[in-house]
Amino acid sequence: MQIGNIxxxxxxxxxxxxIAPPGIPPKDSPEFAIHRNYITEDGHxxxxxxxxxxxxxxxxxxxxxxxGPGNMEPLRPRPFTNLETADPALLAYHREQGLxxxxxxxxxxxxxQTELRTGMxxxxxxxxxxxxxxxxxxxxxxxxxxxVGWVSHNGKPCFPNATYRCERRDxxxxxxxxxxxxxxxxxxxxxxxxVERLRPVANRLEPWxxxxxxxxxxNACFAPGHTPGNCIxxxxxxxxxxxxxGDAVHCPLELTDPDFSLLTDMDQALADRTRARIRxxxxxxxxxxxxxxxxxxxxxxxxxxxxKQAWMFEKE
Length: 316
Prior knowledge:
Blueprint: E1 2-3, E2 6-19, E3 44-56, E4 59-63, H1 88-96, H2 101-112, E5 115-117, H3 121-127, E6 137-139, H4 145-148, E7 152-153, E8 156-157, E9 163-165, H5 168-175, H6 183-189, H7 194-198, E10 212-215, E11 218-222, E12 231-237, E13 240-244, H8 253-256, H9 268-282, E14 288-290, E15 300-303, E16 310-313
Parallel strand pairs: 4-6, 6-9, 13-14
Antiparallel strand pairs: 1-2, 2-3, 2-5, 3-4, 7-8, 10-11, 11-12, 12-13, 15-16
């Protein structure tokens, strides 16, 4: 896709599957139609994982870096039947979160129904004719495992000529003296931490503060809440504009229904305010919008309507 002089291409890496949360429109309602391609008939959510390749001037940027190497085989927690036979590490984690009784059983059931598949990002780049050495910048919207997975592998940078960039608050939170540990995905799907992924590129990591110009026509905009330094990317060229939302928004439903949330944000109230700001920015359909978890990483538009706003994916 072209945004003026800027080329942007989706780069698929994998998929996370989990039980869909409450608040999804009924399957027989017109509002549900747009969500059919990522919510299954049996109530599971298919959340794609990917990144975006952006060519601007002499720079070839990778915005986010997927969940990391793998063979696309499903990574699942131990099946859950009862607390007596449950995975002791996951059980201990949930108890440390203050869960007990039915709430604990429910949480263990939910996590046991998840599945992570990853490993396609390298192949996806190759299909686009891009070698790892071609990438000049790896720019991270935030440092969760499914956005830093291809930063490094086996202690070596995956993109040997790239500068690696993220917002400073996320760098301090995930990589500082007391780094945040993503315990749940590590226990459930054996993921790697941001510390491990970014250690091999520490000498070429360049954090920015707040908003930043990343390349000609490519801006990072501070959008906190999901993580302390979460950012979105705005592409602008020749009067055309697009936004890549990182995890400020995971799916179109979080845009069209302000009351719906996946409840994955570190600061829920702040994340809600960030999403409200994004809705105002894209209202009217003039701005193309996507995110690394949108179905097939497609772009779409927010359309004005009576009552709740409507969403439309761009046609191929």
